[in-house]
Amino acid sequence: MVPVKDRIIKVTFNADVHASLQWNFRPQQTEIYVVPGETALAFYKAKNPTDKPIIGISTYNVVPFEAGQYFNKIQCFCFEEQRLNPQEEVDMPVFFYIDPEFAEDPRMVNVDLITLSYTFFEAKEGYKLPVPGYN
Amino acid sequence: MSTAMNFGTKSFQPWPLDKGSFPLDHFGECKNFKEKFMKCLRDNRFENALCRNECKEYSECRMERQLVAAEPLEKLGFADLMDGKSEAETSFDEKATTGHVHGCWKQSSPH
Questions:
Q1: Which of B102, B84, B85 is nearest to A72 (CA)?
Q2: A86 contacts in B (CB within 8 Å)?
Q3: Quaternary form (chain A) (predicted)?
Q4: Coil, strand or helix: which one is B98?
Q5: Which residues are CB-neighbours of A91 under 8 A, at least 6 positions away?
Q6: Phi, psi (5° rounding) for residue B15?
Q7: pTM as predicted
Q8: pLDDT tens digits for B38-85?
Q9: For residue A125, which of A1, A101, A103, B20 sits 20 to 30 Å off, Cα-Cα?
Q10: Cβ of B94 and A1 within 8 Å?
Q11: Which of A51, A14, A39, A85 is nearest to B102 (CA)?
């Protein structure tokens, strides 16, 4: 994978929680500058400020929609139940890269900002997490 | 997010997480390395390319504490950062052969 060094992309980060989840959840950086083909690391932070353990599960979204197909998460904390004990605070890393083919897609020529959004929900039995896909 | 009526776009499968779940660092064992990385970002206007060393160290920490599967660092493209050789950019097929790539470094020459 060869980095495309002349295509600098700004990645910004959003963090949301569903109304019923009593976690504090935020990105640890507002933005990071990457190029296609270069893997990157970013952090979120979550805290359970209550006196009960809470299990959360997250999904993610990428805008613009068309850029999302080039956004590859190597590893992240999404789609797996994550338990935070009372008062526990934890760093949540995301390893990702933007596929070098992004730089060859004429529809992407004006895209220099990609926003990654994570939303945490409280994990409950029978809850089906919406998994993003582009099929 | 608006409804995506993009029937003409190429279909895309969200890339599966190759190593399965990604355990969180509940005991903060790698927090120092995370702080070093974040400081590097803040000192370098959030340019990821300038913080690859810190990223490598964070990854090593996670591997040492078995928060992620250990891999030889040379295989992960850190050879240039380890012995001071200049980086060689090559095409790379790790994604195709192993189904995943590893984070925060450029792949060095295949051996």
A1: B102
A2: none
A3: Interacts with CNNM4/ACDP4. Interacts with RANBP2.
A4: helix
A5: A28, A43, A44, A45, B24, B25, B28, B31, B34
A6: -65, 125
A7: 0.76
A8: 999 999 999 999 999 999 899 889 888 877 766 665 544 455 566 543
A9: B20
A10: yes
A11: A39
